[in-house]
């Protein structure tokens, strides 16, 4: 499988190079986050072997199972990119180096109580879809105040997940809006863009693209046989 992964990584890197050339941005500005949810710990080991160092996981419990197999990887950083409930905050703070999905003052305080230092991002909900987690743009100023009172948390930026569409242009207004929200607050990092739309996200200022399918292939739901 590592050979397939190597080929896919090459394709992702080619796509990245093209958009960097077109936008005049530098490779060091962009974190390629390998999203390994649903895939086994071996996928993380394979990706690490190919030079990837930043990994995204969606569920605390799922990553808990993989953690013993990957905790020795020096220089690897694990980002939680799925919704986090306050009652799992302490465990999440132990397992992850970055929590990208902080969306309430309560959650921020729980993470802060777990000790630190811990890098966090605020997840912003920009679409009206009910299912999407994240803080509303109007809640952002109060949430920023709450986070700044948390001495153990280091806020690096904002994260968002637009409504799914196979047309990457459909996501552009959301990416643009996230960048516009971050700017007045001096937030440098923007986690936006996935397998099918990361070029658009980078054009709009993304500093962290979260790529699963383009590296590891289609995810088969755990409920499937
Ligand atoms: C699964 C997931 C991704 C990766 O999506 P792909 O389309 O497979 O690249 C990115 N971000 C979040 C929040 C995810 O849950």
List keywords for this structure.
225 residues, alpha/beta, TIM Barrel, 8-stranded parallel sheet, 9 helices, 8 strands, 39% helix, globular, binds pyridoxal-5'-phosphate
Task: Characterise this structure.
- The chain is an alpha/beta fold and 225 residues long.
- The chain has one domain: Alanine racemase (TIM Barrel, Alpha-Beta Barrel), CATH 3.20.20.10.
- Helix content is 39%, strand content 18%.
- Strands 7-6-5-4-3-2-1-8 form an eight-stranded parallel beta sheet.
- Helix 2 links the parallel strand 1 and strand 2.
- Helix 2 packs across helix 3 and helix 4 crosses helix 5.
- It is globular.
- The mean pLDDT is 95.
- Bound molecules: pyridoxal-5'-phosphate.
The number of domains is: 1
- In the CATH hierarchy, what is the superfamily? Alanine racemase
Which CATH first-tier class would you pick? Answer: Alpha Beta
Which ions and ligands are bound to the chains?
pyridoxal-5'-phosphate
Instruction: Please tell me what the overall shape is.
Output: globular
Described by strand count, sense and barrel closure, the largest sheet is:
8 strands, parallel
* CATH architecture level-2 label: Alpha-Beta Barrel
Q: Provide mean pLDDT, rounded.
A: 95
What is the SS-derived class? alpha/beta
Count helical runs: 9
CATH topology: TIM Barrel
> Compute the gyration radius: what is it?
17 Å
Proportion of beta-strand residues: 15-25%
Number of E-type strands: 8
């Amino acid at each position: 499988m590592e050979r397939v992964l190597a080929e896919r990584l090459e394709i992702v890197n080619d796509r990245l190079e093209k958009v960097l050339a077109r936008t005049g941005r530098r490779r060091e500005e962009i974190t390629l986050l390998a999203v390994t949810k649903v895939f086994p710990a071996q996928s993380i080991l394979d990706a690490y072997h190919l030079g990837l160092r930043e990994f995204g996981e969606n569920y605390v419990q799922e990553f808990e199972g993989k953690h013993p197999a990957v905790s020795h990887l020096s220089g690897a950083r694990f980002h939680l990119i799925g919704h986090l409930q306050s009652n799992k905050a302490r465990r999440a703070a132990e397992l992850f180096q970055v929590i990208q999905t902080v969306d309430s003052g309560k959650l921020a305080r729980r993470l802060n109580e777990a000790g630190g230092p811990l890098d966090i991002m605020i997840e912003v909900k920009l679409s009206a879809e009910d299912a999407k987690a994240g803080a509303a743009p109007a809640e952002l100023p109060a949430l920023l105040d709450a986070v700044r009172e948390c001495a153990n948390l280091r806020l690096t930026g904002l994260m968002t997940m637009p409504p799914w569409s196979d047309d990457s242009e459909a996501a552009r207004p959301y990416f643009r809006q996230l960048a516009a929200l971050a700017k007045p607050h001096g937030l440098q990092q923007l986690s936006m863009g996935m397998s099918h739309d990361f070029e658009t996200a980078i054009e709009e200022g993304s500093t962290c693209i979260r790529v699963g399918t383009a590296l590891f292939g289609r995810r088969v739901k755990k409920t499937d046989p």
